[in-house]
Structure formats: C-alpha cells, structure tokens
Amino acid sequence: MPSKKTLNAKNLESLGAQRLAELLIEVSTSNAAVKRRLRLELAGSQSPGELAKEIRKRLTTIARSRTFVDWQNRRTLIDDLEAQRRAIVNQIANTDPSESHELMWRFMALANSIFERCDDSSGMVIGVFHTACRDLGEIALAAQVDPEELAGRVFNALNKNDYGQYDELIDVLSPALGSPGLAQLKERFLELSEAPPERPKDKDRKVIGWSTGGPLYADEITDRRHQSTIRLALQEIADAQGDVDGFIAQQSEKSRTVPSVASKIARRLLNTGRLEEAWTAINAIDESKPGWIPFEWEEVRLDLMETLGRKDDAQRFRWQCFERGLNGDHLRAFLKRLPDFDDLEAEERAMSYALRFPGVHQALAFLVSWPALDKAATLVTERSAELEGNHYEILSPAADALAAKHPLAATLLLRAMIDFALKENRVKRYRHAARHLLECAGLAAAINDFGRVEPHDRYRARLKAEYGRRTSFWSLIS
C-alpha cells in the first residue's frame, strides 16, 4: 500500500483546496515558470477568451525579449514555450479553432527571434517548433481557413524559414490548402522564381569569406538560399499534388546522378507505375565517383527489380550490396529467398567474408548485431592491431556483448579504448577509461590463457610506467 506521504494526486487532495492554494502561492513566489502556468490555468477557468488573451500577452513578451538563452536556461525556455503551445492546442483549439489558428501562427513567428538569441545545440528548441508546425496542420483544417489566404501565409512563412522551423509546413498544411491553395502557392513561387535577383553595386558588395574560387559575397549566399527555398517549396508542392514530373523538374541534371536524388525520383516513378522511367532514373548515378551508396538507393533498385520480375538479378544485387557495406537487412533478405540448407551455407560464406572485410570496425558492428559473437571474437583477436579506440560507439557495446563468453576479445576492445584515451590525453574520456581498466581486471579472472596477449597485471604495470603522470586518470582507479 502506497505511503500517504507519497507525492500523488490522491494524497495531495487530502490537504484541501485552501492549503493547496497557499502552497502554490508560496512555490510560485520564487518560480516564474510556475507563476505563468498558474495564470494560464486561472485565465482558462474564466473563459477561452481570457486564456487566449493571456497567451497573446506572453507571446508578445517572448518576442520582445533580447536576453541570450544559454544551455543552462534552455530548459526554462522550452518549458515556457511548451506551456503556451499546449494551451493553444489542448484548450483554445477545442472551443475556438479560428482563434487557436491565429495564436499558433503567432507562436511560430517567434522562432527566428528566439534562435538569434538561443543556444540550441541540443536541438530541443527547434523540436518544439516542429511539433507546433504539425499542430498547425490539424488546427488549420479544423478552422476551415480560406485556402488562398492560407497559401499567402505559407508563402510568407517559407520565405522567413531561417532556422528550418517551417520545413514541414507544406506537408502538414496540404489537406487544409487543398487543390486551390496548393495551386495558388505554386503560382506564387513560380512568380518568385522568375523575378530577377536584387544585386548590389560592386562597391556595396560585402565579402563574408573566401574559397578556392575567390571571395564569397553575402548577396551570393542570400541568392543561393533564396533559390533553394523556391526549389524545395516547388518540389514539396509537387509531392502534395501527386505531380511526379513537377518533382523531377526541380532536380538539376547533375543532381539526378546523385544516389539520394536518383532514389527519390525512382521511388516516385515506381509508385505511379512508370517502371521503365524509374529504372532509367535509378541507374543514372555517376558510378565513376567512388563513395558511399545510401541504403535507400539500393532498396529502390531492388524493389524495381522485383516489380519488373527480375528476381535472379535482385538476388545477385542483394549479395553485392551486402559485400559493399555489410548491411544485415540485405543479407537477411538474400537468405530468406534461398532454398532450405542453401541459406546455411550462404550465411557461413557471409560470416567468412565479414572476417576479411577491409573495415574492421564495420565488420565488428555487423557481427555483433547479427549476432555472430564467436566470429566477432575471432575478428577481434586476429585483427586487434587495427582497432582504433576512438570508435567507442562500436567498441563499447561490442565489449559488453562479448564479455560473458569471450573475455579475452572483450579485454582487447576495452584496452583499445583505454590506450586511446591515455595516448591522446583525452581527459574527458578518463572516467570511462578507468571503468574499462577495472572491467579488464574482472575479466582477467575468466581468461585461462592470454596466449600472445599481455596479461592484465603486466598491461596495468606498463600503463603506469608510460602514463604515470596522468594523475587525473589514476586517481579514478580504486
């Protein structure tokens, strides 16, 4: 049975309304966020109109603020913004969609001024605005806003999308815009694309940087951003209208040879049954340029092969894709389509290939995730000299996975991270390196034969001899 001192709604109710009110006044006296929340609740209890008035007042205050928000005060800002957003969505929208529509546009308009004075390295503040943008889509539909009027607002907003707060705007508002609104929006952006850019006189041009081609001018950067806004808007409108050719028209001939763009074009053509065009599009990439091939490109090409009935070709391509990047999804799909028993032989061939794969860290990540822990342990012990301790995002979970049955391999992974931290004097990694060294001591008891690997006591003694002056590290070793 829960204690009566546990903080929950039922226990607090027992204090009575008057005592709770006194406590809230006491708490809010030294907490501005709580005070604002209480004001919102009081305004909402009077009427939706009073709540809307309180929200408008707060949004105006936020818009006028010029105080820089660092990482320490970021949480307070987020809570404040979230309180206003939730009040608009959960209270105003239910009773007055039109009012909530206006308020949400005012809320979104805060973004540029906030990001000019805010450290959003965590991405949490922009997350609030992305959520609000999605809310706007539902609110605009409920408010039955005039499509052409809404198109004008969308057009103006996208031309002030300095921090990406409106990136999803066309997608979320396309139901409310409908065919008339989307057509109006497209017309506005086409007109904008035909307008000549404003060029300052040569003497007024501002140099903001330098490249191999010479100076970079502010007006050139502005113009590129302007053209990008138009192109992205027109392709999103084309998607909303189901206009595949309109989407393709926004891609330059050069960009169509980029795998990520080729896959987007081919996927849209595939979805509309234009298979031959899709095949041409997916194969338009410039294969003379070595580099990373995205999974999406491989996936679309495979879907096309299957749709075209080229199942044997698809199988061969799946294996090629696996060989290129050790993608487990491709291998599973390949094995699934093989006859019984053939899949076991093919899987063993894949594991052997992974052991020889040039990138040891990529191979390790694949073998651990498959999972093939015996093979992963073999990889580590045979190729430990290739391990780089800076890849802790791969080595650390691999060490955890191998520790129980393969303590020597786990030890080698932990040592790679320890060596890197000490050799490179990465002080911020010392806490983790110290923990890894203690884990090595625990694993040593389970290792019957270190073979050619340095036993733990000698390894620790060598670290002490080489890095004894790293006092901030050794102080962490109990």
What is the residue-mean pLDDT, rounded to a whole number?
89
Query: Going across the major beta sheet, what is the strand order?
Result: 1-2
| Distance N to C terminus | 41 Å
Described by strand count, sense and barrel closure, the largest sheet is: 2 strands, antiparallel
What is the CA-atom radius of gyration, in angstroms? 30 Å
Q: What is the overall number of helices? A: 25
> H/E series, N to C?
HHHHHHHHHHEEHHHHHHHHHHHHHHH
Helix content: 55-70%
Sequence stretches where pLDDT stays below 50 over 5 or more residues? none
Number of distinct beta strands: 2
Shape: globular
Q: Strand fraction band?
A: under 5%
Structural class: mainly alpha
Which characteristics define this entry?
478 residues; mainly alpha; 2% strand
Structure report:
The protein has helices at residues 9-13, 17-29, 32-46, 48-64, 74-95, 97-108, 111-115, 124-143, 147-158, 169-194, 218-241, 244-249, 259-271, 275-282, 295-307, 311-325, 328-336, 342-356, 360-369, 373-382, 392-402, 407-423, 430-444, 456-467, 471-474, and strands at residues 207-211, 214-217. It is 69% helix and 2% strand. The chain has a two-stranded antiparallel ribbon with strand order 1-2. Among the domains are: 252-337; 359-478, no CATH class. The relative contact order is 0.03. The mean pLDDT is 89. Strand 1 (207-211) and strand 2 (214-217) form a beta hairpin. The chain is built from 25 helices and 2 strands. It has 478 residues and is mostly helical.
